[in-house]
């Protein structure tokens, strides 16, 4: 029974008990009270009993049913109101204690306290109750009952939390044991004192060549040669094939009953020592080659795919990687291949294809006859001429980041355990290569990107300029550089704070980027300065473009822009110096303008434009 169902059963029992109590109270008040008070309390108690009874028989009362706890509070307050006697507040005290011990919701408990204590207070103020020791006594008792109710409710919540955590821990341990048992590469079976198999993991069933339904419940003795407790032995499968396994037997007594643990470790490859040694050398060479390429930052995909093809004796191997859109992988695409012409082929992940299944489950699948399986795309099989297929997930840190599709143009009845492990190991190397490449790209972006505005930084600008100067020299097209500096940015920071200043820089970067062409280049030079590179653009055209962007700055912010067009002879430093001088000339001329550099390469700067308030 789940925790929720147990909680509902307990809640129904409590509500039923409360319904019975209030039914008895209705009878008691009918007999004990007189006048209007008898009628009012009999009706209220009866209504409460009915409501609680209905909730008790409800199949799914839910957590919202705890709000029914306010009904007894209302009855208790009403009893004091209609009788006008303070000693009836004892019922309210007991009800507060009961609510604290029965409900788990802090909101319901708070509402009960407010309703109970508040109702008691309003009743005392509205009626002419004694103002002496009696009133003080009952007031303190009600408050004390409310406090005890809160403490009881908090103790209940903590106890339930402890029980829930203990239950979850036990369930987690059981789940982990089951997962380890089922995922163990060694065949494991457990037999009872009568020699019957009560549990067997998939590896055991696979090794003995029998389905679980045939193994569980059958006699364990066929797997336990007489007089052998440990050692190698042949396992003859129903299909006539023979596997070699290393047998380990463990005996124990649990609960007064003997149990036997049978472990079969597949060691067939030990009998294929020569082939295994040769394959091991090839695998190590492939892993070493992949590792070398990974360390040097090269793309290791081709090396790994070629190694998988060689070790699996396959005809073609494809690597499919996810295409991420809006943070979600909706399809995979073939990024590298050996032995087939399928580069760029895309497979959706929202379907029932075998590739989608392996990507979602993270488990490898081998099919000796994939053409007979409707989950395998006939079109893809035709493209690779696949008669048998193996799909191996590429997993990194518990996430599937790709799929290796291994195909044979001949029918392969089974893939040896060693070759399967080799493909799995190379899949791990593939994961390492892909993650290494992703890390390098991320580090490269970090090294060349300004963290505040997400624009290229000065280092990225330097590399871009070297390339763009070379292109301009070869093509003969003009190349213009501009430096923009926000006016009075220090004063803006002092007035609105640095957070607002950072936001202004981000919005300025967005405004500048929106006005550029794809071939233009924008970088944050530092502080409040931005640098533009406009290829195939002369000074006059650049001034027009930059003036339009200057006018589009957010919050009526202004900037001063200096423009310089490369004369095809000066160095990059000289070109940048002219743009910088032009920018300070714009500052000196009153700011909020675009100024083109003169033909003089070293104009005299205005010292006044160097003040920090620029």
Automatic annotation (TrEMBL):
Chain spans, region Disordered: 595-614
Ranges of residues in domain PAS: 173-217
Transmembrane segments: 12-33, 39-57, 69-88, 108-126, 135-152
Transferase among keywords: no
Keywords assigned: Membrane, Transmembrane, Transmembrane helix
Example of a GO MF term: diguanylate cyclase activity
Amino acid composition bias (Low complexity), ranges on this chain: 605-614
PROSITE patterns: GGDEF (PS50887), PAS (PS50112)
Alphabetized SMART domains for the sequence: GAF, GGDEF, PAS
GGDEF domain ranges (all copies): 477-599
Keyword Disulfide bond (UniProt): no
Pfam family, one: PAS_8
Name under which the protein is recorded: PAS domain S-box-containing protein/diguanylate cyclase (GGDEF)-like protein
Organism: Actinoplanes italicus
């Amino acid at each position: 029974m789940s925790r929720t169902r147990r909680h509902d059963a307990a809640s129904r029992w409590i509500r039923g008990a409360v319904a019975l109590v209030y039914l008895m109270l209705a009878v008691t008040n009918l007999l004990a009270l007189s006048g209007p008070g008898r009628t009012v309390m009999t009706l209220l108690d009866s209504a409460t009993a009915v409501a609680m009874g209905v909730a008790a028989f409800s199949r799914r009362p839910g957590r919202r049913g705890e709000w029914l706890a306010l009904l007894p509070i209302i009855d208790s307050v009403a009893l004091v109101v209609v009788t006008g006697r303070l000693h009836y507040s004892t019922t309210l005290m007991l009800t507060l204690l009961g609510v604290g011990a029965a409900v788990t919701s802090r909101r319901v408990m708070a509402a009960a306290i407010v309703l109970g204590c508040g109702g008691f207070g309003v009743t005392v103020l509205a009626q002419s109750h004694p103002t002496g020791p009696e009133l003080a006594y009952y007031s303190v008792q009600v408050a004390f009952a409310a406090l005890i109710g809160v403490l009881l409710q908090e103790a209940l919540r903590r106890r339930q939390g402890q029980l829930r955590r203990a239950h979850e821990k036990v369930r987690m341990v059981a789940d982990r044991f089951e997962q380890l048992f089922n995922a163990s590469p060694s065949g494991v079976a457990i037999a009872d004192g009568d020699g019957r198999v009560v549990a067997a993991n998939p590896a055991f069933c696979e090794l003995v060549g029998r389905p679980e339904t045939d193994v569980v419940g059958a006699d364990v003795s066929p797997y336990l040669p007489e007089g052998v407790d440990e050692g190698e032995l042949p396992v003859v499968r129903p299909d006539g094939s023979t596997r070699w396994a290393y047998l380990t037997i463990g005996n124990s007594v649990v609960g007064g009953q003997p149990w036997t643990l049978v472990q079969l470790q597949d060691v067939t490859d030990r009998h294929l020592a020569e082939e295994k040694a040769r394959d091991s050398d090839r695998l190590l060479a492939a892993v070493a080659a992949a590792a070398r390429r990974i360390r040097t930052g090269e793309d290791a995909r081709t090396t790994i795919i070629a190694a998988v093809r060689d070790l699996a004796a396959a005809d073609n191997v494809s690597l499919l990687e996810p295409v991420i859109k809006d943070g979600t992988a909706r399809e995979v695409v073939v990024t590298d291949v050996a032995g087939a012409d399928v580069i760029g082929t895309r497979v959706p992940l929202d379907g029932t294809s075998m590739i989608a299944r392996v990507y979602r489950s993270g488990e490898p699948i081998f099919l000796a006859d994939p053409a007979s399986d409707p989950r395998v795309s006939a079109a893809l099989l035709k493209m690779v001429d696949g008669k048998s297929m193996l799909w191996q997930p590429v997993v990194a840190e518990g996430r599937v980041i790709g799929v290796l599709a291994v195909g044979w143009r001949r029918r392969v009845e089974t893939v040896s355990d060693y070759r399967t492990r080799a493909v799995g190991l190379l899949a791990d190397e593939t994961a390492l290569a892909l993650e290494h490449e992703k890390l390098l790209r991320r580090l490269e972006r970090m090294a060349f990107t300004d963290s505040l505005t997400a624009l290229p930084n000065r280092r990225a600008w330097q590399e871009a300029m070297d390339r763009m100067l070379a292109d301009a020299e070869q093509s003969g097209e003009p190349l213009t550089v501009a430096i923009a500096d926000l006016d009075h940015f220090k004063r803006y920071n002092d007035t609105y704070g640095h957070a607002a200043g950072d936001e202004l820089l981000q919005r300025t970067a967005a405004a500048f980027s929106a006005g550029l062409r794809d071939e233009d280049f924008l970088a944050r030079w530092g502080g409040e300065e931005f640098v533009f590179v406009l290829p195939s653009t002369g000074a006059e055209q650049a001034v027009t473009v930059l003036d339009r962007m200057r006018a589009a700055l957010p919050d009526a912010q202004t900037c001063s822009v200096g423009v310089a067009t490369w004369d095809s002879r000066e160095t990059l430093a000289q070109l940048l110096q002219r743009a910088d001088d032009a920018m300070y000339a714009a500052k000196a001329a009153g700011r909020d303008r675009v100024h083109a550099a003169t033909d003089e390469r070293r104009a005299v700067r205005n010292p006044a434009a160097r003040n920090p308030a620029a």
